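Forgive a beginner's question, but would it be possible to get a protein, spelled out as residues, together with the matching structure tokens, please?
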Amino acid sequence: MNTPMTSIERLRKAMRFEPVDRPPILPYCDQFAMKQAGYTYREATYDPDKWAEGYARVRDRFGFDCVYDQGSAEGNADLALPKNAYQPEDDMLYYPMPYFIQTPEDIKRVKPPDDPWADPKMLRLLQTLQKLRENVGPDIPVISTVTCPYRICGVLRGFDVLAMDLVDRPEWVHELMNTITEGAIRLGRAVVEAGANFIFTVDPTASASFISKSAFLQFAYPYEKRMFEGIRAAGAEGIFFHFCGDTNDRLDVVADDVEFLVQDLGDLKDSYRKIGGKVLLGANIPITNVLLKGSPEEVERCCIEAILKTEGRFFQSASCHIPRHTPPENFSVWVKAATDYAKYPIDFDNLQKRLDQLPRLGCDESLRGFS
């Protein structure tokens, strides 16, 4: 291909496994982006103009393919729920105890708004999406984060208590999941109306590191699938799904219902062999031991390994949320390697030679999350 594709063309074609010039580069990096833009996380979270302008400027500087709203800052679906939360100046949202749901009566007080556009906190999020679209134009994908219902249940009830509820009070869980799912669908429709092309859904506590596969299939995934269907019906072009932790026993379940998957733990090559023909997998490059704490050579190595493990049929991403203190030089090396080494047609023999020249990782690659 002689003419580079626009980012939106690249993502749409890659999603359908059609020929592209290179894999999309889709970092989940809002904390990093706001720091590089010169804003504290809290400052940008509460100011749609700063968030949108800053993200667009950082995307232009580094050359990746998308922008995100502040859903990961506040947890989109959380905004609908009657839960006091604290936004630190330069960190993720903090949910203080005691947990909101203590008794069955408390469940009745969980009332996501019927119209997200009429809710002040949701309106700020929707205005951010509109500002993002204004800043990046039609050629850059705008992605909105909508948190999955099971995670929201844990925020309201406490994740440890919720795990016991699956056995002791299953009717509570189903009642709460129904309410939250409907709210998440309404929010999903609104973010599409506001300008989001794609929806990034996250359920960090529904992996095998937290609950069994049988519990996942009974209490979490039916509601997540319903949410996917509702958001897709509203016009979302595609849906991302991200677990945290061990997901090997349930990736195949989710792969049937989404277009993009970002796993945390697990071997990318094995996942590609099992499900790479029906869902576009993201490169699960370790965010802490490599992007945050590693050397540029280690970042380059992981990028090349991801290309080789997937035969270049994937999108560049990391194992989770890229830390705000990630060295800019590491981020730049990642984007450059993802751009230069994965241009089609890919010279896999040359990539293997370059990989053999690079030092091996000086860390345990399995430790991918925050330290």
The chain is about 50% helix and 5% strand. The first strand starts at residue 67 and ends at 68. The mean pLDDT is 90. Residues 254 and 263 are 11 Å apart (CA to CA).
